[in-house]
User: What shape does this take?
Amino acid sequence: MTDSARTKPEVDAPTGPAPTELVIEDIFLGEGDEAQASSTVDVHYLGVGYDSGEEFDSSWSRGQSINFPLRNLIQGWQHGIPGMKVGGRRKLTVPPELAYGPAGSGHQLSGQTLVFVIDLLGVK
Assistant: This one.
């Protein structure tokens, strides 16, 4: 794995209106196994609010990656991670409908467009 994959990424403050559809941007491509919709993924990630640019969660800050079945994660991840290869870094800009729902849905991040930078460390 490259050194850049081990370091917490920085996310520039987004500009312009938040997208209404999932935006997938590869920062660098991996060369390992490819994630499938049915995969369990091991990832490091950083999450920031699109409007605020403020970090709301980061596995790097906790010093430990997360390992989850992709089907158990938000829809933005379910749609945005398959096709990614181990060793890659991808940025997902996720509208509320594919994250935690519209404002008032009960989750503290509902109604928000979220930006995630994800390093794919492994797939099963």
